[in-house]
Amino acid sequence: MRPVFRKLSAVLSIALLLVLTGCSEQYLVLDPKGPIAAAQKDLILITTIICAVIAIPVFIITAIIVWRYRDRPNRKASYKPDWEHDTKLELVWWGIPLVAIIILATITVNYTYKLEPSVAIESEKEPIEIQVTSLDWKWLFTYPEQGIATINYFHMPVDTPVRFKLTSDMAMNSFWIPNLGGQLYTMSGMAMTLYLMADEEGSYYGSGANFTGEHFAQMTFNANVTSQEEFDAWVDEVKATEVALTEEDVQNLKVKGTHEVAQYSSFPDNLFYDIMMQYVEDGAESAHAHHTTTSEDAEGSSHSEHQH
After folding, report:
1. pTM
2. Cβ distance 182 to 208 under 8 Å?
3. What range defines the domain where residue 138 resides?
4. Are 180 and 195 in contact (CB under 8 A)?
5. Are residues 34 and 176 in the same domain?
6. Residues sharing a CB contact under 8 Å with residue 7, sequence separation 6 or more, in sequence order
7. Region annotation Disordered: residue ranges (predicted)?
């Protein structure tokens, strides 16, 4: 009885731990605050339900078979050693999973195209651009339209599409705000595009979702979503009260180490693209960066015609 009691205690302990964890923290991926995250949540739930339709009956039938046909004294079940095929059963256990896979594949392909990260979100408002640079171990955010920069946090207006341009100073990382959408890699020599939008004001957790060394766990940031008026007031305040980000500051940021939250009233011209292209040989050009820059020319006039 002791081994059984120990196993039962372990299972109950794990179950209790999961319940307590669920009560103390939100499941960020399942708490969407924007249209992209909401669509991704729908996909997660749909695929889970489809898989459960197959998995739960299989588990139940397996338990029944193990119990029903266990070896026991005075068994009276008939012995049929030559039984090996039943067409109806074969159709059931092959047909149902096949139909489920077809349904799952169709839904997944549809959502994959629907959630293409570089396609602009349909909106009546013009998107704003935020350039994101991952460094060891900090995040640099630059606003080319507003002319300001921040470290380890940023602001964005509610109900307004944001076009994130992503690159890396050196090590590849992954930019992720669970409440707003899925992650996308930051890579040196590349300018990846990610559209996100928030439909509720608040402060949302963001992080680097890729292992990059000693302090990768501290590569977190806050995405602060405010009204347009509050966003404009914040921009004006930063311009009026903060110092400029200099070339020397940029070189210091590139040194491995953590950094406190900071904000700057301006930053060097073409900073994002200079960092992105710093390891590209003279005369060469990142094909992806060229494609991204070229496609932006068309985005200004057609951003509202596409659905993320």
Report:
1. 0.78
2. no
3. 128-298
4. no
5. no
6. none
7. 286-308
Residue 267 included in any domain: yes
Please check whether residue 20 lies inside any domain of the structure: no
Taking alpha carbons only, the member of 204, 208, 231 closest to residue 128 is 231
For residue 168, give the nearest of 131, 223, 215 by alpha carbon.
131
Q: Are 181 and 40 in contact (CB under 8 A)?
A: yes
Judge if the upstream peptide bond of residue 137 is cis by omega within 30 degrees of 0: yes
* Alpha helix (H) residue ranges in 26-86: 35-68
| Co-location of 108 and 210 in the same domain | no
Number of other CB atoms surrounding residue 50 within 10 Å: 16
The answer to whether 232 and 156 are in contact (CB under 8 A) is no
- β-partners of residue 150 are 141, 263
pLDDT single digits (tens) 55-85? 898 899 899 988 887 877 877 767 776 767 7
Q: CA-to-CA distance for 275 and 139, rounded, in angstroms?
A: 13
**Does 294 map to a domain?**
yes
AA letter at 281: E
pLDDT tens by residue, 202-260:
999 999 988 888 888 889 999 999 999 999 999 999 999 999 999 999 999 999 999 99
